[in-house]
Amino acid sequence: MKQIFKSIAAFALVATLSASCSKDEATTTPTETVIGSPTLTVVTPTAELNLRINEVVSINFIAAPASGAKLKSIIISKKGGNNDTSSIVFYNSDSTVSIVDSSSINRTVKDSVFGNVGDKITYTITVTDNKAKSISKTFSLNIKDLYLTGQFTIGAEASTTTEIRCFGLQSGIPKSIFLLKDGIATPPKTYPSTADSATRARFNSQKVDFVYFFSSGADGNAIYSPDYTFTAGHFWNKEISFWGTKNATVFANGSIDKSVFAATNFNMEQTIDAVNFATGTTKFVRNLQAEKAYAFKTASGAKGYILVNVTAPDNKGYATFEIKWKK
After folding, report:
1. Are residues 214 and 279 in the same domain?
2. Are residues 175 and 312 in the same domain?
3. Which region, left, alpha or beta, applies to residue 4 given φ > 0 means left and ψ of -120 to 50 means alpha?
4. Is 173 a residue whose pLDDT tops 50?
5. Which domain range does residue 227 map to?
């Protein structure tokens, strides 16, 4: 009987000790520390940018790991413009300080703007820590600039040197102008077949913003809007009567010198923006002067200046022009 009581007492002691150990283990289990994500602040730019080709965007950012973590990588990529896929602009580029040992990174990265006028480029900054946590922020810039045509030649009505007598603007670099022949082949003055459709204004009238001619009368060297009503019997009256589209171009009063036209794109853009197209416009500019530029606005909203380099001496000659314009 005593032996039974001893066994019961021993079992109770073991159970008590086991419970005590289990209780101690439960109360001493360490609490797991939750580590947050890294932080990222884009200091500049603070808003969407408008820059010109070959200008430089300055990107200033501050990145920091959360407490208990370390920075692993910082990547700046961009997409848009000439970049159909993302390209790397910056990747942990620091020759003096390792970002792993940094509590905070404050960097300024510069990147040149490439692409075409009207492109939008999106930059993405991504910060990742050694706990595989990351944060990303984006900003965009728009490429703004002037379209430049370079010098081109337009023939007067009876010129056999060039049959290009009208032209229009198009978006895109380097092609920024349509040069079209009139619908009447010279010589002989007969309407061509559709075989000439790629180069004839009759089949591309929606592309024409300017028509040119020389007159020994009041007009001299002149550019007109395609929607101008020419008198019956006039060269352009007969030609434009075949056009399905007659675009409306307006011209502002006055002119600027070639030296102003040749100024930097930034200054020239300000000159264009200052032109008042709301009042006092006409559908033509007569007696064009060499080394003068004339302000215009097309039906599509393009506005700029057309520079006259050379004027035709008669209706068998030709004139040369250049255009700077913006949308």
Report:
1. yes
2. yes
3. alpha
4. no
5. 147-326
